[in-house]
């Protein structure tokens, strides 16, 4: 038996520990002599005193060893000449194709190689070994029989020569190449270990080289097995580097058997009882790691190993499986029989613990073993033996303690049973599994309460049962793979037996639903809690309509779970709410329309928002999280939308689920919650966008663009800077102090100004307690003498409050701005009243119409309620749609089922159009000056002229003063605000503009509307239709409107419409009676304006009127002379003598000339 270098001796050589070397036995020391002799004889690089002492000790150690003399003789050879001859021999061998012909190193041998070696001196021995080694390195065949390296008598001498040759001729004999050559001979591993032990620094280099040149699958060939054995001997010699060598194996994806063998060696040396062994960790890492290349490589090793018939103890795969089985059996509670023992039998056989539990210290190791076997069978294709299958089933059906690790173990065991149902092959084993599953159901609540793990195996059992009932086998496969943490192939057909057991023996559908309701909700449910939770089970049961089928109420469970939520939002919550709403509205079957779930009650919803509704300090009073409030808001909005969308279906089933009352919706701070959600978008997932969608559909008045822009300003950088200026004084002002300051407004403005200026530094939510005081005192601000700054600051505060509580704020403001009539009690309007009749907003105190800051608020509310009214009427139409069948019967419209629907829709649109046009007409009336303002010389026409005069006059001293006096007034500012709103309304629905102008309005407002509303140009589209109306008043209004539009918009389109107007007027003059001609004098003046506008376009045309006017424009001096000499003279001469028709003609002529002169001079 060959003696290898011991780990102790190798470590001593690595560290050059002379003391340890001295303690070695003679046989051990003999193996290291080549290196020690060279160390003692060669000049050292280390010239220190300590090395000099160590060298003396080495010489003393070598002095008594006889073999040293032969090694010294080897070192005295001329290695330079030897290297030259070796190089020549290599060249010769290369020419001869590697044949064993003549040798330069060794002359013709007289005897066998071994005998020649014995009789030779040291130089010849070196040449003999070198020649043989070079021949082996040619690798003609893998295994080469070499007499010199096989003779047991001369192994040590040959090893000495080999070590000296490699040390003295490193360039000719690289150690990696020599190591590779030694694998080709018998005893090569022994020579290799000896060689590396004498050059200890080369250990890693040799190992990496051998691995790099190795086979991908070492168990497949003789060479691979020899390489593995050699590396294994090297690692036994240097065990501290064994795991590093194993790392090289994985890195290169070569020699998988070596990696396993090294792990087995390391596992035996470590011998840990309770912890997870290194073998389990290593193999699990290979199969479950992220490197697909490594996983495929090792999986191939397992598959190929099973295909070979040679499954003996020499196979590394067999050794690995045996070791894993021993570890598995080592942690089994007790050896159990698969015979099922009833509870009574357990007492009779106290010595046999049939259902004894798994020890707590073994649970983690057991889980690791289960995952490893899953990976081996599912990924690497390992086919378990009967013994392995038996022991695995015993382990899977053991009962762990109630700890988090125990919960994890049970979940893994359950999923492994589903994934590998072939492990259960006999009726006894099947019964054992059923008993274990029943135990799981019974102990689930105890495990959850004791272990403190919210995601328990009970939910997984329920979920699998539900999937089996709904035949969702792919979902079960996904669940199994997710729990095991690996992607394995599971055939749905393999689950058929488990499906039968679950659906018929363990979990009938009724048991599932009854059990699910009793499962506690997950506390503080969020996306941070992973695994399969009760919410997954409830979701699946709701989808399959199990609760309604078996009349089990689930409403309370869902409500409790929504209350127990936090951020980040769990992704299953929104699907749960959606499927719950569907189960409320849609019956489980047509035969049983009452089989639906109950909706959440209004009181329960109000409880969620307790603290937010009150308007006090929100952060202190909030009982439920913002997540719970947003989810309940999503539930209400989605429920109402689904209710309207399913009206027809519900009517056909003669069902009418209850809608939530408007008073409930009024009490929910929707806008405040949306603002909170906007700041938590990252944590709320898709909830914020879903809420915005629902708002835009059902509450358009809460999605006004101006509000969002205003909100950006309130929550932007400026707001942060204002917050930095926030002082304690601003925080100390209470609503009561604000009320007292408002009460003193008639005599003292300073106090209220100071308080509201401080309030502007507060955030929107902090302003909520002041909302009622601010709105209730708005009527006081209408009195004369109130500074404009107070009004503007109140407007600013109102706009900030509008971002968090718009609906409540609007109702309070409308009620506060009602006209105060003595002895008449003011009516308190509700949100519903204002949605039904938005024009209530304009029935405010008349003084508001001349108070721009408060008028701005009024217009904002009007716009909001007009949008709200549209949504309200659309919803009302859908709600009452189910009454249509009875209406059809009474009307008796057979075969015209669409007629009532069309009529109702038309009536709704007509009502909305009338509502919008009425609002526009009222706003236009507000733009007209009052009698008092007219007495002061203010009218809209003069305002417009003042604007033009300010722009065009060349001597502006007087004109500018008049313009400023008239422009800087409340009326003008109110007109601008109204024009802005009308512009938005016209753009949103151009039909409103058409309807308003067909109705008509005072012509003195035309200069204002055309100049102040940018979207008035759309009127050019319908003016021809308006001119074609039979009423003369409408025709006159159309021409007047057109004249202003032509001056404002000098476009080709305006020119064509203007030409039409001139032609129409020419026709009218021929058919009108003498009495009516005087009614259109002002209209003729407008015709002149139209013609002047045409001249301004500078467009050549065949129209004689236009051509003549353009010629006049080009020669203004000549025309002016004509005017003076001809027209006016004739006019003055004939005015008193001619008949009325002639007077009319001269009047028209003078007017046209005057307008043309004005236009030409202006141009």
From TrEMBL:
Keywords: Nucleus. Belongs to the Integrator subunit 2 family. One of its GO terms (cellular component) is integrator complex. It is found in: Nucleus. This is Integrator complex subunit 2. It comes from the Eukaryota. The keyword Nucleus applies. Its main location: nucleus.
């Amino acid at each position: 038996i060959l003696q290898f270098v011991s780990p102790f001796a190798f470590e001593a050589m690595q560290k050059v520990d002379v003391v340890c070397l001295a303690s070695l036995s003679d046989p051990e020391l003999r193996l290291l002599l080549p290196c020690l002799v060279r160390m003692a004889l060669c000049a050292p690089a280390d010239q220190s005193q300590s090395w000099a002492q160590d060298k003396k000790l080495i010489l003393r150690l070598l002095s008594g060893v006889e073999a040293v003399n032969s090694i010294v003789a080897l070192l005295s050879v001329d290695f330079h000449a030897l290297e030259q001859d070796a190089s020549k021999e290599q060249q010769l061998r290369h020419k001869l194709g590697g044949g064993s012909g003549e040798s330069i190193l060794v002359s013709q041998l007289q005897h066998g190689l071994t005998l020649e070696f014995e009789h030779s001196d040291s130089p010849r021995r070196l040449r003999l070994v070198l020649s043989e080694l070079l021949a082996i390195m040619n690798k003609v065949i893998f295994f080469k029989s070499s007499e010199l390296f096989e003779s047991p008598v001369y192994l040590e001498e040959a090893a000495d020569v080999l070590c000296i040759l490699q040390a003295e001729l490193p360039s000719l004999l690289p150690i990696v190449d020599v190591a590779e050559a030694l694998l080709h001979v018998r005893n090569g591993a022994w020579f290799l270990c000896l060689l590396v032990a004498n050059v200890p620094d080369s250990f890693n280099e040799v190992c990496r080289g051998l691995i790099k040149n190795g086979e991908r699958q070492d168990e497949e060939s003789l060479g691979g097995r020899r390489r593995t054995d050699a590396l294994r001997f090297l690692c036994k010699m240097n065990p501290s580097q064994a795991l590093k060598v194993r790392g090289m194996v994985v890195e290169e994806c070569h020699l998988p058997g070596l990696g396993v063998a090294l792990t087995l060696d390391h596992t035996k040396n470590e011998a840990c009882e309770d912890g997870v062994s290194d073998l389990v960790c290593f193999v699990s890492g290979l199969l479950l790691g992220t490197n697909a290349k490594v996983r495929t490589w090792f999986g191939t090793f397992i598959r190929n190993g099973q295909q070979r018939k040679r499954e003996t103890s020499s196979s590394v795969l067999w050794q690995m499986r045996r070791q894993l089985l021993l570890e598995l059996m080592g942690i089994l509670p007790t050896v159990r029989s698969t015979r099922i023992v009833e509870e009574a039998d357990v007492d009779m056989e106290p010595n046999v613990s049939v259902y004894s539990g798994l020890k707590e210290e073994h649970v983690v190791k057991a889980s690791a073993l289960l995952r490893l076997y899953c990976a081996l069978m599912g990924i690497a294709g390992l086919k378990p033996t009967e013994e392995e299958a038996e022991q695995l089933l015993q382990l899977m059906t053991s009962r762990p303690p109630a700890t988090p690790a125990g919960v994890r173990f049970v979940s893994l065991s359950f999923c492994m049973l589903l994934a590998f149902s072939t492990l259960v092959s006999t009726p006894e084993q099947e019964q054992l599994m059923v008993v274990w599953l029943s135990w799981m159901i019974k102990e689930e609540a105890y495990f959850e309460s004791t272990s403190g793990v919210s995601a328990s195996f009970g939910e997984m059992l329920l979920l699998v049962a539900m999937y089996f009932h709904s035949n969702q086998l792919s979902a079960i496969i996904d669940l199994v793979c997710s729990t095991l943490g690996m992607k394995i192939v599971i055939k749905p057909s393999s689950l058929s037996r488990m499906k039968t057991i679950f659906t018929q023996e363990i979990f009938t559908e009724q048991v599932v639903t009854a059990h699910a309701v009793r499962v506690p909700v997950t506390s503080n449910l969020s996306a941070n809690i992973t695994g399969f939770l009760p919410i997954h089970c409830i979701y699946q049961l709701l989808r399959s309509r199990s609760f309604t089928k078996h009349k089990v109420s689930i409403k309370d469970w869902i409500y409790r779970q929504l209350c127990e939520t936090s951020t980040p939002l769990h992704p299953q919550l929104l699907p749960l709410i959606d499927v719950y709403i569907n189960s409320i509205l849609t019956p489980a079957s047509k035969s049983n329309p009452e089989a639906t779930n109950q909706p959440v009650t209004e009181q329960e919803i109000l409880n969620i928002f307790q603290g937010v509704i009150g308007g006090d300090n929100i952060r202190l009073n909030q009982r439920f999280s913002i997540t719970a409030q947003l989810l309940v808001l999503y539930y209400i909005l989605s429920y109402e939308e689904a209710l309207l969308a399913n009206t027809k279906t519900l009517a056909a089933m003669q069902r009418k689920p209850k809608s939530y009352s408007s008073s409930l919706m009024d009490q929910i701070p929707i806008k405040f919650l949306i603002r909170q959600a906007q700041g938590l978008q990252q944590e709320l997932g898709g909830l914020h966008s879903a809420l915005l969608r629902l708002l835009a559909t059902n509450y358009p008045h809460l999605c006004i663009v101006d509000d969002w822009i205003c909100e950006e300003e309130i929550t932007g950088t400026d707001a942060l800077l204002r917050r930095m200026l926030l002082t304690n004084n601003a925080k100390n002002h209470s609503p009561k102090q604000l009320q007292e300051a408002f009460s003193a407004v008639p005599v003292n403005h300073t106090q209220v100004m100071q308080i509201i200026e401080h309030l502007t530094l507060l955030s929107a939510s902090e302003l909520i307690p002041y909302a009622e005081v601010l709105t209730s005192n708005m009527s006081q601000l209408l009195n004369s003498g109130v500074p404009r700054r107070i009004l503007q600051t109140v407007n600013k505060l109102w706009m900030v409050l509008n971002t968090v509580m718009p609906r409540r704020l609007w109702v309070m403001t409308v009620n506060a701005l009602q006209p105060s009539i003595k002895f008449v009690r003011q009516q308190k309007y509700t949100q519903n009243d204002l949605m039904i009749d938005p024009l209530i907003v304009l029935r405010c105190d008349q003084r508001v119409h001349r108070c721009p800051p408060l008028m701005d608020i009024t217009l904002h509310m009007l716009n909001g309620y007009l949008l709200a009214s549209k949504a309200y009427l659309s919803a009302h139409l859908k709600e009452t749609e189910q009454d249509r069948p009875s209406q059809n019967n009474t009307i008796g419209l057979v075969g015209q089922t669409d007629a009532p629907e069309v009529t109702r829709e038309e009536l709704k649109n007509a009502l909305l159009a009338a509502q919008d046009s009425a609002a526009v007409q009222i706003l236009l009336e507000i733009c007209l000056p009052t009698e008092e303002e007219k007495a002061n010389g203010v009218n809209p026409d003069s305002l417009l002229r003042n604007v033009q005069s300010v722009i065009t006059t060349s001597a502006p001293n007087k004109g500018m003063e008049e313009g400023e006096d008239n422009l800087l007034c409340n009326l003008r500012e109110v007109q601008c605000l109204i024009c802005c709103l009308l512009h938005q309304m016209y753009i949103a629905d151009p039909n409103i503009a058409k309807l308003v102008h067909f109705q008509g309005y005072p012509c003195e407002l035309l200069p204002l509307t055309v100049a102040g509303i940018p979207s008035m140009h759309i009127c050019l589209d319908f003016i021809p239709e308006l001119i074609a109306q039979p009423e003369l008043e409408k025709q006159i209004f159309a021409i007047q409107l057109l004249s202003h539009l032509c001056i404002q918009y000098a476009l080709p389109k305006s020119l064509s419409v203007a030409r039409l107007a001139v032609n129409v007027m020419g026709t009218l003059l021929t058919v009108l009676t003498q009495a009516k001609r005087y009614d259109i004098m002002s209209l003729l003046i407008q015709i002149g304006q139209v013609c002047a506008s045409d001249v301004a376009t500078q467009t050549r045309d065949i129209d004689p009127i236009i051509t003549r006017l353009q010629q006049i424009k080009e020669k203004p001096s000549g025309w002016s002379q004509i005017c003076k000499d001809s027209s006016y003279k004739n006019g003055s001469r004939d005015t008193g003598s001619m008949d009325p028709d002639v007077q009319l003609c001269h009047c028209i002529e003078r007017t046209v000339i005057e307008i043309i002169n004005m236009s030409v001079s202006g141009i």
